[in-house]
Every structure is written in C-alpha cells, then in structure tokens.
C-alpha cells in the first residue's frame, strides 16, 4: 500500500490544482514502483495535528480519487468522517482506512452500506493527546482485544470478514516500548482471522531506534521494519518507499515463499 498525501501547498500560488496534481503524480509514481494499493489521505493524523473540516477534506481527496478510479490499482481513502467515506466510495474508492476503526458518528453505516473494504486501526486517545501518557495492561493483548471487538462490531453491522483488515496502529498512543512489543509479537494478530496491515514507514520509533532525525532519511530502517512485519504475518504494508520495499520483499519471497 503506497501512501499518497494530499496536503495543501499553502506557499505555492498553484492553489487546489497544484496539490491534487502533485498527489496524482505521486500516485502514478508509486504505481510504477509496484504498489498494489494506494492510500489517499487528506487529513493529517500527525500527533498534535489540527483536524480538517469535511468540505476541505473532500476538496483535497475527491479530485485524486476521480483521477485514479480507472487505474488498475485499488484506492484506499484515509479518513474518519462518514461523509468523506460515502463520497469517496461513490467516487470509486475500494477501501476505507479509518484510524478510528469506524467508531465515529455514521462511519460504520457508511462502510456497511457499500461494498468497500475497511482497515480497522487501533489507537489510544486522540491525535491531540495520544502521545502524552500511553498506558496498557499488556499492550499486545489490549490492542488485540480492541481489534477483536471492532471486527465483531463490523461483522454485526453487515461488513463481511472478507472486507476487513486490522492494524495495531504503530505510533498511535504508544511508547517506543509498546511499539517494539507490537512488532515483535505481530504474529499474534493473525488469530483475529483477517489480514493484518502494518504501517511503520518512516515512523519516529524507527528514527529513535536507528538515531535518524529526518523522516525522509528513515528509508532503510523502514525496509527492515517492513520485512520484520511480513515475516510475522502482515499481509499489507503501508509505505512511502514502494520500490525499495518491493525489492526487499523479493528477497524475502525467494527465501521464505510468496509474500508478493
Ligand atoms: C505524522 C505522524 C504524519 C504519523 C503521518 C503519520 C497509519 C495510518 C498513518 C498506520 C493505518 C504516517 C502517519 N499511519 N493508517 N495512517 N496505519 N492504517 O506515518 O500505521 O503515515 S498517518
């Protein structure tokens, strides 16, 4: 899964067209690099980030989904808002990536009323507060229990298991130690019976472990993390660096079997 961020370039005079065309170019680049799925996001889930309104989020993501709908790569949309989910699915999105795990107002119904797939992600707290004091009894058990509950709720709402993936949400209300435990024991999430998605690309846990300040310089650390995640059963890896990740996965596949 290649990451396509649609962020407004407030200092360019190119306006809306510039930000959506930059995102579309990025999407084509990632498809050429071998992405099987693209994750289009118009709201920053960065810890401490200010929320974006529905209208603004739609203005960012819809032109990108519409431009990509006839490509052969399915489009996921990173959003927590039911209105954005419905509009995105109507515009051709095949999947909703919800860091709120469909707990928001109307979100469960928006996906249930469609044929779209969904990624249910765990996070503790809100974007504003989640990194202040993360706490768990047993991080792997607690996150797995939360995700099991969300899978159950989604199924009860009419979303078939074949449409569901789960994600432990690396960096979302977790200390470095929590993130390490989750990656080390990622195989335990396979017991949930749905594919596991892992998002580790360029994250600060990797920066801290490898001593790399700049996010863009964390490519090699991200590759190592992606390989570790796939070895522990992850089926979808959310990454910025598709080409490098695919090259590394080809080696893993040659040695351990088909992870393509
Ligand atoms: C700043 C901090 C900017 C963190 C962006 C982020 C995930 C996700 C994100 C993930 C799923 C990033 C994150 N992370 N969706 N959205 N899983 N499903 O590093 O781990 O891209 S945003």
Please give the count of helices: 9
Radius of gyration: 17 Å
CATH level-1 class of the largest domain: Alpha Beta
**Secondary-structure element sequence?**
EHEHEHEHEHEHEHHEH
The total number of structural domains is: 2
Number of strands: 8
Q: What does the average pLDDT come to?
A: 94
Strand order of the largest sheet: 1-2-3-4-5-6
Percent strand = 5-15%
Describe the structure.
- This protein has 9 helices and 8 strands.
- Helix 1 packs across helix 2 and helix 8 (219-231) runs parallel beside helix 9 (242-256).
- The mean pLDDT is 94.
- It has helices spanning 15-32, 54-68, 82-90, 107-112, 139-156, 176-184, 204-210, 219-231, 242-256, and strands at 2-5, 38-41, 75-78, 95-98, 117-121, 164-167, 197-199, 236-238.
- The protein is globular, with a radius of gyration of 17 Å.
- The strands form 2 sheets. A 6-stranded parallel sheet has the order 1-2-3-4-5-6, covered by helices on one side.
- Strand 5 (117-121), helix 5 and strand 6 form a beta-alpha-beta unit.
- It has 2 domains: 2-198, Dihydropteroate synthase-like (TIM Barrel, Alpha-Beta Barrel), CATH 3.20.20; 199-260, no CATH class.
- The protein is an alpha/beta fold and 260 residues long.
- The protein binds ligand 7PM.
Break the fold down into its secondary structure elements and pairings.
Elements: E1 2-5, H1 15-32, E2 38-41, H2 54-68, E3 75-78, H3 82-90, E4 95-98, H4 107-112, E5 117-121, H5 139-156, E6 164-167, H6 176-184, E7 197-199, H7 204-210, H8 219-231, E8 236-238, H9 242-256
Parallel strand pairs: 1-2, 2-3, 3-4, 4-5, 5-6, 7-8
Helix pairs in contact: 1-2, 2-3, 8-9
The structure holds ligand 7PM.
